[in-house]
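Batch manifest, entry 17 of 40.
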Amino acid sequence: ITGTSQADCAVLIVAAGTGEFEAGISKNGQTREHALLAFTLGVKQLVVGVNKMDSTEPPYSEPRFEEIKKEVSSYIKKIGYNPAAVAFVPISGWHGDNMLESSTKMPWFKGWQVERKEGKAEGKCLIEALDAILPPARPTDKALRLPLQDVYKIGGIGTVPVGRVETGILKPGTIVVFAPANITTEVKSVEMHHEALQEAVPGDNVGFNV
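Output type: structure tokens
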């Protein structure tokens, strides 16, 4: 979940095999859960990969892809995504169909199209759908704001507040003020996923030593 909360885009992989899609989209299925988690954690852009197209009945079935696309579209719309802005790509990860290049096994697939206020995009395979994702603005020019998620006291290191940078830049040596206690202190070091950072920018989940 820490990873998801930092993501700009989610790729929802849906299994097309008989019974597999039905299990994922059922009331407590993973397809529903993952789409809902992504939206709830603020991941606004979505790509849907309809995987295992080689194991549909018959293999590489267009009606099966269309059925899944219709059902997933209706569900993600309820959550809050706009299906018109979501690329649906029929793929087979096992055989590499429509992953990096257009597959000859699905001649019926004319490609994906998305429409959003920033403009339209289209393509044939999954990597193009990823390339069409719009990088969000990183407000690094604003004042540092970092809502705290937790504070750890680590023996031999000291106090380590943890949270996600929303605006501005956090780097070692920065003098920061904690609200509402109004305590001022210097940041000694910043790390993300156990690696020291020279600077943390908006979107980074970090721990920092004060």
